Amino acid sequence: MNIQGKTALVTGASRGIGRAIALELAQNGVKRLLLLARDEHRLAEVAIEIEAFGVEVITLALDLTHVVEVNIALAKAWRDHGPIHLLVNCAGVAHQSPFLQSHLSQVQEEININLVGMYTVTRLVARRMAAQREGRIVNVSSLMGKVAAPTMATYSATKFAILGFTQALRGELAAYNIRVMALLPSLTDTDMVRELQWFRWVVPMTPEKVAQVLVAGLRRESPEILVGWQSHLAVWCNRIAPMLLEKILLIAAPGSNNRQKRYQLLKNARALS
Ligand SMILES: NC(=O)c1ccc[n+]([C@@H]2O[C@H](COP(=O)([O-])OP(=O)(O)OC[C@H]3O[C@@H](n4cnc5c(N)ncnc54)[C@H](OP(=O)(O)O)[C@@H]3O)[C@@H](O)[C@H]2O)c1
Fold first, then answer.
1. 265 Cβ contact partners less than 8 Å away, ≥ 6 residues apart
2. Atom of ligand 1 nearest to the CA of 65
3. pTM to 2 decimals?
4. What is the pLDDT of residues 188-236, one digit of tens each?
5. Which of 22, 64, 120, 150 has the highest Cβ tally under 10 A?
6. Cα dihedral sign for 19, 35, 46, 137?
7. Phi-psi label, residue 88: left if phi above 0, alpha if psi -120 to 50, beta otherwise
8. Nearest to 30 by CA among 99, 86, 93
9. In what order do the strands lie in the sheet with 224-226?
10. Which residues approach ligand 1 with their CB closer than 6 A?
């Protein structure tokens, strides 16, 4: 996709990866950016940074869990500032917890924002893109959408689901000249992960790097854009030696003083099945 002169909508644009993507798109020649998140002050700060590149910015202070409000605001935004050529669904939340101590409220929040929020925005925008027979949609999944890991069960589940959603839409919307792709960052240094316990050996990358890889992937129209060598290695390892990777993840996962015992239990469970 050539993003020069195009209009893009980025959700989760107030900080982290979404903010970096918005800035990278601005530096690469988009004409207009619609930025969506809840925090209007942060959005205004990002808007000022972006306007310095001569890009028109519209901020949409919305909570993706308020479905009716989001639908009304986006329909109006399309009418006043559309057509939107590129949608980047980046807003998301992550909760980390050993599964046995997990809370339903946090699971519901992950599902509501990561999945239902993405669905709500995509449905409204994709219908209008289909009418004009042009569009690109990027759904931000994660390396954890390919390789699930202990303590991140429900977050991983939402990110796996996003890959399924993306693959299905890719087939369905191709007839309308809408390409649908997934971005799969690995650990990235943002607010999201500052509260989390990190997995051993994983080196975080910057949100700016993720944004650069996305823009390069957009040019190539890659259906799945993996970010960084660690992601490529993990996906490759999962394909050719999944049991080995499962073992490594168990050792690397945070919060276990008894990794060896857990691995033995896993092996026993496999032997029984
Ligand atoms: N950081 C990582 O290691 C990593 C790795 C792989 C994938 N990802 C994915 O990348 C995406 C961005 O993550 P990040 O690391 O940049 O996280 P972040 O720094 O915590 O930013 C999350 C963004 O989502 C927005 N958001 C959260 N809840 C929202 C809601 N209810 N309505 C509207 N906007 C909402 C936040 O804005 P407000 O608070 O202003 O609403 C913020 O802009 C997520 O989908 C995440 O799963 C992150």
1. none
2. 31
3. 0.91
4. 999 998 877 666 667 789 999 999 999 999 999 999 999 988 888 888 8
5. 22
6. positive
7. beta
8. 86
9. 56-61, 32-37, 7-11, 86-89, 135-140, 178-184, 224-226
10. 12-18, 37-39, 42, 63-65, 90-94, 113, 140, 142, 185, 187-188, 190-193
List C-alpha distances in Å: 196 to 86, 96, 190: 31, 6, 11
What DSSP assignment string belongs to 84-118?
Answer: --EEEE---------GGG--HHHHHHHIIIIIIIH
Please compute, for residue 234, the number of CA atoms within 13 A of its CA located in the half-sphere on the CB side: 26
| Domains of the chain, first to last | 7-228 (3.40.50.720), 241-273 (no CATH)
Question: Which pLDDT tens digit goes with each residue over 5-35?
Answer: 999 999 999 999 999 999 999 999 999 999 9
Chain length of the chain: 273
Which of 11, 24, 90, 112 to probe ligand 1 with, by most ligand atoms within 8 A of CB? 90
100: which 2 tokens? 């046995």
